[in-house]
Please model this.
Amino acid sequence: MSYATESLRLENGYPFNIQMPTLGGKQLWRDEFVYVGWRIQSNIFSGHFRLLDPDDLRQAWGNYDDCLAVFEKIKTEQKITPPIDQKEGGVHLVLMVHGITRSGDSFAKMKPVFTAQGMEVAAITYPSTRAYIQDHANQLEQLLCKRPDVAMVSFVTHSMGGLIVRELLSFENKWLSDTALGRVVMIAPPNQGSMVAEYVKQRTLYQLIYGKSGQELVPSTAQTLSVPSCELAIIAGGKSDGRGYNPLLEGDDDGVVTVEEAKLLGCTDFVVLPGLHSSMCNQANVISAALKYIQLGKLII
Model:
């Protein structure tokens, strides 16, 4: 029995809930609150909220307060607490931010590796094609403001996720008044913009699939984003042979983003590893390098 159903019987006011798995729709939901695998999401069309447990089963729905109240009840009953990073002396939250048309599942192999090291990991969901980069950054800011218990926040990003974090860290973030900013690892980021996006941005099919954010992956937009002042490393994909995987792109590349496009002035570490753009986050060497940088500040391969 779901907790919302129990709440309906014991405490009038919660919407009736049937415990059920999510049905996909990754472009229709955004994470509004995260806590040790639990998430409160909002639907971009209906505006209603749902509470998902770590297995992505819906435990409640309604407005935000409905879902938060049910979660607080569950948290108390099940004694849910975030892990304490002994090195940081508090909760070290690592936000993993996926790329366009992707989902938090991009980090399915990476999450448990970081979690095993005592970090709280949230591979967030956001409607990547339905809003602009600034809108996605605003979502992250609001989410982090709801976690005043966190001592440090670090980021691991894939592709466009790196641009979103660059935008986020250009804000005067309220959450940083009580929370330390850790390190950022960008995997295959189009930091200088994507010439692929430049070539196809006017095509109807591209506009339909990649939406608003797809129009901002071009050099004229990406290059105007701020460079974070924190420690930042970049893992680019390529063959290190001067040609790369895509014969239509100039120089080394991962099939979508070139090594030159991934570079960002001011990053503290940079490495090129073999791999295709869409699958790099699943590679053992990429996962290991990202973890070492978050922990030690150095990409150790």
